[in-house]
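Table 4 source record.
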Amino acid sequence: MKEQAEAKEKSAWGYVGIWVVLAVLTVLTWVLGTKVQLGPYSLPVSLFIAVVKTFLVATFFMHLIEQQGARRVVFPVSVVFLALLMGVTLIDAMTRIHMARPDGIKHELEPNRPASTRTAPPGSPNRWMGN
């Protein structure tokens, strides 16, 4: 009975308000991606907007704000693990050592390959696949 009374008290205006905020954030993402050039800050700003939109959807439309106990902990824990996964991946990519070209080499390290195997006749020394 108590849950039914709470369900009847909820208004659709809260959902409409969240939907409007999501629509504004979507338009903001589009504007930042197409009209405004933020340079190196484009990706962090876009990811922040995506995280805010995900939080709003999970909290209100998936009703996590109404949950009790362990169900309420699932979302923050998954966000922490996702942040760890992305953070470790980004740290790995940012700290890789680029291979330096040895001194004295004038030609390319990789062989010149044709754009397609069909451009070089069979048996040609430039053919890199097949015969």
